[in-house]
Design brief:
The protein has 3 helices and 10 strands; from the N terminus they run H-E-H-H-E-E-E-E-E-E-E-E-E. It has 173 residues and is an alpha+beta fold. It folds into 2 domains: 81 residues, no CATH class; 73 residues, RNA polymerase II/Efflux pump adaptor protein, barrel-sandwich hybrid domain (OB fold (Dihydrolipoamide Acetyltransferase, E2P)). Strands 3-10-8-5 form a 4-stranded antiparallel beta sheet, with no helix packed on it. It has a 4-stranded antiparallel beta sheet with strand order 7-6-4-9, with no helix packed on it. Strands 1-2 form a two-stranded parallel sheet. The longest helix is centred in the first third of the chain and has 17 residues. It is elongated. The termini are far apart.
Length: 173
């Protein structure tokens, strides 16, 4: 489904009691997807076009729409599925004004600066927010005023080594 929708990054949500009232939770017996992209109150025409083409591709693949042109997609999308334990929420420890230094979609290195929290009145730096591990930045605080312990960024990481995904285990001789 994700390949047809041309979705590159998928994250599985953690189970929570608040999801039980969500319509998405009621659709768990079916294949369901929540698509999120962009920032609140903004429109990114490129993301809209990609999503629209992805929905058309999905509908063609499922036989909902017929396309007699036999046109192949321009490129095949590889989808990386992140499990809920491969997600890190980076929070602030102080209140102030958050100044970001990276963009959503950036691949961060451990220790790389994400942004900083400054005192609203003096401008003094109170805290530097850095990436705790290597990973893909998928959300970043948009509004500058932050409160103590507020989430600033979500980073998707790969906790397991690629060797752990192999169908066989290396044996020492």
């Amino acid at each position: 489904m994700c390949r047809d929708l041309q979705i590159e990054t998928v994250r599985r949500q953690k189970e929570s009691s608040t999801q039980k009232v969500n319509l998405f939770h009621q659709w768990q017996d079916m294949s369901s997807v929540i698509v999120s992209a962009g920032s609140p109150r903004t429109i990114n025409p490129q993301q809209c076009e990609t999503l629209f083409q992805g929905i058309l591709n999905f509908m063609k693949a499922e036989g909902i729409l017929k396309d007699h042109r036999n046109k192949k997609p321009e490129h095949k999308t590889k989808t990386r599925i992140y499990q809920s334990d491969e997600e890190i929420a980076e929070r602030t420890t102080t209140a102030g004004m958050f100044l970001k230094e990276v963009k959503v979609g950036s691949h961060l290195k451990q220790g790389q600066k994400i942004g900083e929290v400054r005192d609203i009145y003096s401008g003094k730096r109170l805290e530097e927010i850095t990436a705790p591990e290597d990973g893909l930045l998928i959300t970043l605080r948009q509004y500058p005023i932050v409160y103590e312990k507020e989430p600033m960024a979500i980073i998707l990481t790969t906790k397991k080594s690629w060797r752990e995904y192999l169908p066989f285990k290396n044996k020492t001789r």
